[in-house]
From TrEMBL:
<dbReference type="GO" id="GO:0004540">
    <property type="term" value="F:RNA nuclease activity"/>
</dbReference>
<dbReference type="InterPro" id="IPR047140">
    <property type="entry name" value="LabA"/>
</dbReference>
<protein>
    <submittedName>
        <fullName>NYN domain-containing protein</fullName>
    </submittedName>
</protein>
<dbReference type="InterPro" id="IPR021139">
    <property type="entry name" value="NYN"/>
</dbReference>
<feature type="domain" description="NYN">
    <location>
        <begin position="9"/>
        <end position="156"/>
    </location>
</feature>
<dbReference type="Pfam" id="PF01936">
    <property type="entry name" value="NYN"/>
</dbReference>
Length: 165
């Protein structure tokens, strides 16, 4: 796959739920999305930055969504679904995958900010289409299959002071 150069067009797709739960379970801290976006872009041309978030009616979520927009992320918001048995579900796997495939014709690199193994096949597909795929996640919670399927992996755990608030 292509090497990194400043003329590359980059799309950054952030799986906010995955990042949040990883940062909380391992460090009991939050992700610094501004620093993560800066590292993901690495001086290249940012085409799109999308943060996929879940509305769970928590007190500070609107402030968080606004902060993401201020940083430069477009936010895609999904309502959490509660089932009859009381269980709850909300994920963006299909939405992220569809956006990545759609953006593939318009960018040189897709940066997936997630450790979710469900995106391994997406990485393989994008690379087959000639798109460079980079993964940004925490080593402790990043699936081995995902890391292997990408062209590169940026371990946020190696730079806690940079990527965590």
């Amino acid at each position: 796959m292509s090497e990194i150069h400043e003329g590359q067009r980059v799309a950054v797709l952030a799986d906010s739920q995955n990042l949040y739960h990883s940062a909380q379970s391992v460090y009991s801290r939050n992700v610094d999305y501004s620093k993560m976006l800066e590292k993901a872009v690495m001086g290249r041309q940012l085409t799109r930055a999308i943060a996929y978030v879940i509305r769970a009616d928590s007190p500070d979520e609107e402030t968080f969504f606004e902060a993401l927009r201020d940083i430069g992320f477009e936010t895609k918001i999904k309502e959490i679904k509660t089932f009859g048995d009381g269980s709850k579900k909300a994920d963006w796997d299909v939405g992220i995958s569809l956006d990545a495939v759609t953006l593939a014709d318009h960018v040189d690199t897709v940066v997936l900010c997630t450790g979710d193994a469900d995106f391994s096949r997406l990485c393989t597909h994008l690379r087959h289409e000639g798109v460079r795929v980079e993964v940004v996640a925490f080593e402790e919670s990043a699936a081995a299959d995902l890391k292997e399927a990408a062209d590169s992996f940026i371990d946020m755990s190696e730079r806690e002071e940079t990527f965590l608030l």
